[in-house]
Amino acid sequence: MKNWWKKSVVYQVYPKSFMDSNGDGVGDIQGLISKLNYLEKLGIDVIWLSPVYASPMDDNGYDISDYLSINPLFGSMEDMKQLIKEAQDRNIKIILDLVLNHTSDEHKWFIEGRKNKSNRTNDFYVWAKEPNSLISTFSGSAWEYNEETKEYFLHLFSKKMPDLNWKNKALRNEIYQMMNIWLDLGIEGFRFDVIEYIGKEPLSMVTANGPQLHTYIKEMNKATFGKRNTLTVGECWNVDIPIAKQYSNPDGSEFSMIFQFDHMKIDWDETLGKWKPCALDFVKLKEVLSNWQISMMGQGWNSLFWNNHDMPRIISRWNDDLINPVHSAKFFALINYFMQGTPFIYQGEELGMSNARFSTISDYVDVETINAYQDLVIDRALLSEEAFLKSASIFGRDNVRTPMQWDASPNAGFSIAKPWLPLCKNYKEVNAEKQIDDKNSVYNFYRSLIQLRKDSDYSDLIQDGRFTLLEPKDQHLFVYERQDEHKRILIVANYGNQKTHYKIPSRIIKKIISNTDSPIHQELDLMPYDAYAFELE
Ligand code: GLC
Fold first, then answer.
1. What is the pTM of this model?
2. Assigned domain for 161 exists
3. How far apart are the C-alpha atoms of 66 and 84, rounded to whole Å?
């Protein structure tokens, strides 16, 4: 079926923290295989597998040293083939996280290229005789001196992640060849890491959305996945609606869909970003979500997500004190799952897992957090240690990367050894084993939402129905409607810690799903984080 991904739900596996099969404290591919039944039962269609390629793990695998081999920490190519096969047996497709903006400095292209200007792969990377003022996302200058060639190489991320030069046609061809090898192995799509940077013109200070970006994506599409029925999603931090429509053009010339982050940056500071967050402006959040819903309708396709391996657990971020975490986890799920787009679940979200809330800098192992601390607290003194650590307990990426909470046994059933990162302390209360047979669990709420999207009287409406935001200025109520020529759905949800009420605008035919059993009246009383989906006349 063409565009099958419009009705699919994707589950992101961060392999280091999913399931450890060999007792080294690090998750692996065999561990993931052992949990495929769990994922099948949840009802997901696709697994987005964060990088498992050979890598020195400076950025947990987003620094690839060989695109065509598997990091022994995670297993072997045989394990990978087995994963693809066993997933297919359960009707689950595997899509790989592909990092094409940069490689590891331990990739053979870079090792050779940095030795000599005349080596073939020198031009696979981006060089300058003098650095300009470009800043790396992981703090400090984006340029690093290379003694052998007396030039600087570009790294938009860590120093161990040199940027690739997409202007080089031979490089592009090698990349396409590699992608086709993966597709031939049975991979059914890709998530493209920071793809917006591949058209960069760094000497003119242009990083995202460079002039050749869409030319390269179209070329890649034609040379690789375009001929196949895949799910492709581009990670785009700097994107407006017209550009998003280009990326996800329904003519199929680029990707299936994108990740855009407008709703995820609402509480960021203008200069210090996530390291100095402010309170959530809920009215703004509704405006942003609604704008994307309305503008993309029929002209592109979006993903729906609240968190991933870079983004805090939503119930820790926007339900500060974790008051009634089960209730608020269902609230965030419900308001997301009736919008248009393809939902992405980040591992553990379906259990209502929360941030670990690490409290000292020595708790962190993530290169981004450690570099930001050095830069903002030590070198430039822009934030006090206390202020930084408070923000880091929300946005520091290790807080969302703690091991999956499978059960209440030691190490939460994730590993027989001490995990590479400490567990979130609540694993005895919040874990899969406890939730699978509990009909009121977050897990079973996700199962129901997934079923509603995929296979119910409402599936078509959820996929394509018109979106209308109601009560746009209300500080707590999130009310929206989806409608097509047959049916009308109303979502009513109450954000925050106060009671409120809402008069349902027409007769209720049916309650489709909600996170509460409170009695329903046309004039509806809502407790904190109550959320409903109704079918209306
Ligand atoms: C993306 C990944 C992130 C990584 C970065 C550099 O944003 O999601 O984890 O650090 O790209 O590859």
1. 0.98
2. no
3. 19
Residue 281 lies in a domain: yes
> Which of the following is catalytic: 20, 28, 63, 235?
235
Residues of the chain falling short of pLDDT 70: 320-321
The pLDDT, as a whole number, for residue 367 is 97
CA angle (243 as vertex; 239, 249 as ends), nearest 5: 130
- Distance from C-alpha of 162 to C-alpha of 57, rounded to nearest angstrom: 14
Q: Domain for residue 457, yes or no?
A: no
Pocket test for ligand 1, best of 16, 48, 57, 59 (most atoms within 8 A of CB): 59
Domain that holds residue 480: 466-536
The alpha-helical segments, DSSP class H, found in 100-225 are 108-113, 169-184, 213-223
User: Which pLDDT value is given to residue 176?
Assistant: 98
- Structure token pair of residue 528: 């904190």
Regarding whether 50 and 182 lie in a shared domain, the answer is yes
3-state helix, strand, coil in the chain (%, to 5): 35, 20, 45
366 lines ligand 1 (CB under 6 A): no
Is 59 a pocket residue for ligand 1 (Cβ < 6 Å)? yes
| Interval between CA 488 and ligand 1 midpoint (Å) | 39
Cβ of residue 196 lying under 6 Å from some atom of ligand 1: no
pLDDT of 55 reads 98
